[in-house]
Give the backbone structure.
Amino acid sequence: MVVKAELEKLGIPYNNVELGQVDLPIDLTASQRQALNTILLPSGLELMEDKKAVLIEKIKQVIVELVHYSDEPLEINFSEHLSKKLSYDYTYLSNLFSETEGTTIERYLMIHKIERVKELIIYNELNLTEIAWKMNYSSVAHLSHQFKKITGLTPSFFKSIKNKKRTGLDNV
């Protein structure tokens, strides 16, 4: 909504505005681009023109949507899902992500899954077996192993801690 309002203020036509992406019917002039970037910065938004940076953001967006906002289990493995969703070969995506972010897509995905598991533990609505199933782990042991690898704690110990701390999505 912020982006739409700012585009309208500047008189810049658009076809569609979605999370992280704007479809424009025309190319922006240098002055329009500068004005848009200046007006978006106070809202914490910025223009991304580098195609590789945009692709990295799309990879992150797919991961966040999958882990935090989808309750449907994947019918295919994640690498295939990502390749289909972004229409790029997974090896290319993986190499680009690792080169740019300094970590693998798999590790980034694992960190987000563990943050979601922490959230589910804090909510205390599901037991560990149900959380493992919901998050597509093959077993509670697998979930526990990854949880300890990322946090240094077992899920049970984490649950027992009175002051449960989570990392905000912006800081992952």
